[in-house]
Amino acid sequence: xxxxxxxxxxxxxxxxxxxxxxxxxxxxxxxxxxxxxxxxxxxxxxxxxxxxxxxxxxxxxxxxxxxxxxxxxxxxxxxxxxxxxxxxxxxxxxxxxxxxxxxxxxxxxxxxxxxxxxxxxxxxxxxxxxxxxxxxxxxxxxxxxxxxxxxxxxxxxxxxxxxxxxxxxxxxxxxxxxxxxxxxxxxxxxxxxxxxxxxxxxxxxxxxxxxxxxxxxxxxxxxxxxxxxxxxxxxxxxxxxxxxxxxxxxxxxxxxxxxxxxxxxxxxxxxxxxxxxxxxxxxxxxxxxxxxxxxxxxxxxxxxxxxxxxxxxxxxxxxxxxxxxxxxxxxxxxxxxxxxxxxxxxxxxxxxxxxxxxxxxxxxxxxxxxxxxxxxxxxxxxxxxxxxxxxxxxxxxxxxxxxxxxxxxxxxxxxxxxxxxxxx
Length: 424
Fold this sequence. Notes:
Number of strands: 24
Oligomer: single chain
Distance between the termini: 29 Å
Radius of gyration: 24 Å
Number of domains: 2
């Protein structure tokens, strides 16, 4: 599901962090720390010896990994495109899945997850002459789709376990899901229908949103569609690549759900127009790239460096998301209301860069809520291999017993981000 990107936009206009001096961390001790104090079996380095070269990327905490819950992916996804009569973009939308599957973009985002080319070439599109609903909730959409697939509508291809039903609503239709409204809290929904015989059918509901991120109407549609198709292909029945590892749950905007498209929605370069496709699409999370310290949102620009600032979170702390009645533990830091604690930040990049600026934001403030955290960075600039310190003061208890913060690393007009969690 593609959520709104307001957090990223707000993060560009206000900084919570401040700057001060910091001391160097104490030298490491222990069996691997080098020669013992007082021993003469190792000569000290000459005073003019150059400092040890820092590798690229410098050591840093592991980046998040999207986790498979054991479900299947679509090895050869097919798409039935469903539009209402009068849709001005019907031809483009019907051709888009096949063009997408042939593009270099599609292979870059789904190959590592076991998904092959996607296509609508072997499926018949559905043209709806019936009036479009003014308002439809996802629960009613499921009933509608169940009726369409009951065998009494020969114009609908039967489900076969690999077919996605992509439903496009016209502008006059408002689509809702779980109390959220399409084009407000989310752009579209990839979902699964459980039929009366308990078989599962993947489908996507796409309302007609106003232009997003400065895109025109058709590129708004293709961008949202790409997001949903890559998620529905890698997580068709909501039990495959559906969530983060437990220790990475702070990175989920709607815990515990974190599909590979959701993980990149706040990336400043998330939307691209591949030359071999010609329409806007959204980049997606790569576990392999993240593990290698590379840009985790692929396909990444070949000429751009990746850099980031990660909080070092070592405690196992409780985390809850009452909206989904979910609770678990994740990596974070415990700070009680009215108290402060200082944690380390690790800076890394995959190649040489200029020093970047570090800005830290209270997640509650980014969402328009009263502040929950006060955040202070000891030095607001740094580069690969540097260490910084972040002091966290809890001002008020979070709604679910904790608060999140976002760290934005800014270099020129670009930025990257990471997310931490504070249990109070």
